[in-house]
Design goal:
CATH topology: Rossmann fold
Shape: globular
CATH architecture: 3-Layer(aba) Sandwich
Number of helices: 11
Structural class: alpha/beta
Strand order of the largest sheet: 3-4-2-5-1-6-7-8
Bound molecules: adenosine-5'-triphosphate, magnesium ion
Distance between the termini: 16 Å
Low-confidence stretches: 1-10, 334-340
Strand content: 5-15%
């Protein structure tokens, strides 16, 4: 349980959840089930599909328009211009690195009703309000010359300029494997749910993810979640192979498999009482992070300074160390997710 080192200084308890793990382990399925659980639990939610293979729209039964992909150059530029606001530490919107932190004058997204997001999102549910944003995939023009990590930069900017709380959740379905460590994706969440299938390939990815999380200072935010578990042996295999207790596990669900084969999306009816309990333990883990958002921001700043030392940053962006604002603090929000 996270204890507040900044007592009385408005330390924020945020609610940003990421689902990570090997390809095919069930990240999108559990993300979609979690979104449906949040819908049933009446939580306004911003959902971000950060995977190059965009599956969430289909699972949540909404349409997405390529012109609204976050990585579309016009969209990315408009979003950064909004985030920049009157922050004079950012000379130009073209200077946003994935690690560029919010500072004095930056606009922060504090609600899923934020008009900048409303025009980009697909509505999953109106009451509570749940919107899906999609980072996007390669287009024909980008073949051979695009790196998915650079597509993710704008999602990293969005996450570091969003202030969630217990009334406003952020859920992100991530790209497979350990790609989150390429830049700052691994530093953007309060709960990172590492999906583990009972297979050697899946547990290997989990072990690597946990090692990298430890190196980066976010190990305490990572929770292992078993998926497609068929029996006690599967459960024991995952725990033993990874060497960490599971926060939760999901059984192999033949009804879900059939529904997907028939082209049906994930719906609230799939959240029976047992499923509700499994998903609520995920929400509870996110609500009690062992690292405050200020501590995460410090890690982000450290990474920003590391990037600033890279040749490609120096030549493409110049010295960006001045983007860090030592006087900036996230404003305290009203609501049960606010500490201090
Ligand atoms: N608990 C489960 N029971 C039955 N089928 C499941 C379960 N979890 C996931 N699946 C199925 O496993 C397949 C892979 O799941 P999913 O697409 O969610 O994985 P992913 O980790 O998001 O994959 P990718 O890395 O390709 O994005 C899907 O066909 C999904 O319906
Ligand atoms: Mg997926």
């Amino acid at each position: 349980m996270y204890t507040d080192p900044f007592q009385g200084h408005g330390v924020i308890c945020e609610m940003k959840f990421a689902f990570v793990g090997k390809g095919g382990s069930g990240k999108s399925t559990i993300s979609a089930l979690f979104v449906k659980y949040l819908e049933k639990s009446n939580r306004n939610t911003l959902v971000v599909d950060a995977d190059i293979n965009m599956n969430l729209a289909g699972l949540l039964d909404v349409l997405i328009e390529p012109g609204k992909f976050l990585s579309h150059p016009d969209v990315a530029r408009a979003l950064r211009s909004y985030f920049r606001g009157t922050n004079r530490r950012i000379k130009d919107v073209s200077q946003y690195l994935p690690t560029t932190p919010a500072g004095t004058g930056s606009n922060l997204v504090k609600s899923v009703e934020d008009p900048e997001l409303a025009r980009l999102g697909s509505t999953v549910s109106k009451d509570p309000l749940i919107r899906l944003l999609t980072v996007g995939t390669y287009d024909a023009k980008g073949i051979g010359e695009t790196c998915y990590h650079s597509h993710l930069f704008v999602a990293e900017n969005l996450l570091s300029h969003t202030l969630s709380d217990s009334e406003f959740h952020v859920v992100c379905d991530m790209v497979a494997g350990t790609d989150a460590f390429a830049y700052s994706m691994h530093l953007q969440f309060d709960g990172i749910f590492l999906i583990a299938e009972p297979s050697p390939e899946s547990v290997e990815v989990c072990k690597l993810y946990l090692d990298l999380a430890k190196e980066s200072g976010v190990a305490d935010l990572v929770h292992v979640v078993g998926n497609k578990i068929q029996d006690q042996e599967d459960l024991e295999y995952v725990v033993k192979a990874i060497g960490k207790e599971l926060l939760q596990w999901f059984p192999a669900l033949p009804a879900l498999k059939k529904a997907r084969q028939q082209g049906r999306p994930i719906d609230c009816l799939m959240i029976d009482q047992a499923m509700d309990e499994r998903l609520s333990s995920i929400e509870a883990a996110g609500l009690n992070p062992r690292l405050s958002n200020q501590e995460r921001v410090r890690l982000l700043e450290k990474l920003h300074l590391k990037l600033n030392g890279k040749q490609w940053v120096q030549s493409g962006y110049g010295d960006v160390s001045g983007q860090i604002d030592p006087y900036f603090q996230f404003p305290a929000l009203q609501g049960t997710g606010t500490r201090g």
